[in-house]
Design brief:
Layout lengths: L1 E3 L6 H5 L8 E2 L5 E5 L2 E9 L2 E4 L3 H11 L6 H6 L6 H9 L10 H10 L5 H15 L2 E3 L4 E3 L4 H5 L3 H6 L6 H13 L12 H8 L7 H12 L9 H9 L14 H20 L9
Antiparallel strand pairs: 1-5, 2-3, 3-4, 4-5, 6-7
Helix pairs in contact: 4-13, 5-9, 5-11, 10-11
Length: 282
């Protein structure tokens, strides 16, 4: 099936934007995305035209919200008002990135894992957990495992979790697992909370501080005013913005601007060192 996307949409920039760790570039310009039990293969066919591996209803119900296609990102970029040339350059460099609306449970565990880890290490941990607890999906392109649900997570033996390389984050993951499985944390019901209410509820999970809570608010619940302050964003604030946090000035779209800035920092670092050692350490 072919679809048309009129707004900003760049598959490679989305893949490299540091917000999701299971996006994969395949042969023949195909990109693979996973959310829950759903797998999408998508590639650019022509200007604004994309080939996708699913039917129209599935794209509308699952992938349209996942890619946040109801939001006009061109308008977001054009709304930026600042005299900071770095920010303006980052907004232009990040054109095509979209803030993905990811599964809340996977996002929570993924960003708990992200603490002081490189992006490749996070991706490896996520894939290991999927193999340990998820279920197998066979597609026309590959065999892969879903990220384990909270119930599936409960069945992973503690020794296997320890061997998965999660390190000191193990008690944080277990607390999240236990609270979500028991219903103490209801990730679906939390959709109705205000931004601050959602943020505060997430922080009741052991090991979830401001950065992780804001990551989950932004990447799982679409609260695009939230700005995770990690190592790279803090460096920009200190080194490029003279220690003054510019993001509150972008109001309701501050999280999107943060994403452009984070991507720009990663591309700058990759250009210097030609490595994939970027992390989302806080």
């Amino acid at each position: 099936m072919f679809i048309t996307i009129e707004d900003d949409f760049d598959l490679e920039k989305i893949r490299m934007s540091g917000q999701c760790f299971r996006v994969k570039e395949l042969n023949d310009r195909w990109y693979r995305f996973i959310t829950g039990n759903h797998v999408l293969y998508i590639r650019k066919d022509a200007d604004k035209r994309y080939e996708v591996s699913c039917d129209e209803m599935t794209f509308h119900d699952i992938w349209h919200p996942y890619f946040d296609l109801d939001r006009n990102y061109e308008a977001v970029r054009q709304s930026v008002r600042t005299d900071n040339e770095y920010i303006l350059d980052a907004v232009e460099a990040g054109k095509g990135i979209r803030v993905l609306r990811q599964d809340a449970w996977e996002t929570l565990i993924t960003f708990i894992l992200s603490q002081r880890k490189s992006i490749p290490a996070i991706a490896n941990n996520v894939e290991t957990l999927a193999r340990l607890g998820g279920h197998l999906i066979e597609t026309d392109y590959e065999s892969l495992f879903t990220f384990p649900t909270p119930r599936e997570f409960m069945r992973i033996e503690m020794g296997m979790l320890k061997a998965a390389g999660v390190g000191y984050r193990l008690p944080y993951i277990c607390d999240a697992r236990d609270k979500v499985s028991s219903g103490e944390i209801d990730l679906a019901a939390m959709e109705k909370l205000s931004d601050e209410g959602l943020f505060d509820m997430l922080k009741t999970i052991y090991g979830v501080g401001n950065k992780i809570a804001n990551c989950v608010c932004l990447y799982a619940y679409g609260r695009i005013s939230r700005v995770p302050i990690d190592t790279w964003i803090r460096k920009v604030i200190n080194n490029t913005c003279e220690g003054r946090n510019p993001f509150p000035g972008f109001g309701d779209v501050a999280g999107v601007i943060q994403q452009y800035v984070f991507y720009t920092e990663q591309m700058r670092k990759r250009g210097i060192r030609k490595t994939e050692t970027e992390d989302r350490a806080g």
